[in-house]
Amino acid sequence: MNLIVQFRRDLLIAAAALVVLVAIGLGIEHAWPRDFLTAIFAAGLLAMSLNMLIGYTGLVSFGHAAFFALGGYIFGLLLQSQAFTGAMGAASVPLALVAAVVGTGLYAVVIGAICVRLTEIYFAFLTLAFQMFLYSVILSWVDLTGGDQGLMGGIPRPEFLGIDLGDQYHRYVFCAVLFVVCVMIMRIMTESPFGYTLRMIRDNATRAAFLGVNVTRVKLICFVVSSSIAAVGGVILALFTSGAYPEWAFWAQSGEAIFMIMLGGLNVFLGPILGAVALRILNDVVQMYTSHTEIVIGLVIMFVVLGLRRGILDFVKDWWVEKQQARLAAENRNGREG
Fold first, then answer.
1. pLDDT: is 25 or 176 the higher one?
2. Any stretches that span the bilayer, and where are they (predicted)?
3. N- to C-terminal Cα distance for the chain?
4. 246 in helix, strand or coil?
């Protein structure tokens, strides 16, 4: 499909999805759908950005949540700073958002320049080591981060450009727009020649290098972009909870994102979103009936991995392809017999 045609199609789908999300948030008075979807926006961006590394580039990161947490902390700290909000006024929110993304991106450049030179298990555990380093900094730098209590006192939600983040409806729409824009950015990247370069590196990095691809540079660009998008997820969660907490930078947060990818599917673009929704619903339902949440969720994930041997959307995609291939084979056979 022509890239321009595909871009227009994806843009229309994104616009339609945004309209549906806004309609749900504004059309239902109960707060639960807005809270549920806002949490999915944050978790979905974390999982989808991580899947740019795992599913498209073949880099399994155990420390991706560090960038998620860093984005939330930078955003929250800036808005809690009276000097910053006083000097920037109405522009404090967009500038804090930009600072969170750029700051996380710069941190990712430093970390990525070291990590992307390694492969497989070495890359995975080095990213985990850097995540636990950031987690330790958050816990120990109590005067700045609040230590194990997180950013206490709430994050100010000033009004800007007619958007009042103190209003639950305005805040929800703002988070929905951030989510859809970031998903669209990832879609454009993964369906562009750059995205197919990532797939080539995933499948055979040696061949990609032989064809003239600067494998290290391409991996680093993907690492930085995915980290910056994860930071936006942290910003959304910081707005939602009016705080930022060290648990966001703990290894379990990265593990949960990997579970989402495994559950939803890593070879389908929207697979991690489905995984985020499924894991959140599963977690909420299980907590209603038992306190052994981790055991039940672990059994479900094990069933998906061992039973389907792939994520849910991966299974559906393969089933559909096999069905279409069988239909075409039947049509060709009937044509020859006729």
1. 176
2. 37-54, 61-79, 91-114, 121-142, 169-190, 220-245, 257-282, 294-312
3. 33
4. helix
- Looking up tokens 């809690």 gives 80
List alpha helices for 146-270, DSSP H.
Answer: 168-191, 193-203, 205-210, 215-241, 251-264
C-alpha of 93 from chain center: 21
Burial 62-85 (b: 16+ CB within 10 A, else e): bbbbbbbbbbbbbbbbbbbeeeeb
Per-residue pLDDT averaged across 94-112, rounded? 96
In tens, the pLDDT along 163-179 reads 888 889 999 999 999 99
- 28 burial (CB, 10 Å; 0-12 / 13-18 / 19+) is exposed
- What domains does the chain contain, in order, with CATH numbers? 3-249 (1.10.3470), 250-338 (no CATH)
Query: Residue 150 is encoded by which pair of tokens?
Result: 């997180």
Tell me the average pLDDT across 273-287.
Answer: 87
Closest CA to 145 of 245, 247, 254: 245
CB 81 within 8 A of CB 151: no
Tokens representing residue 231 in the block: 């930071």
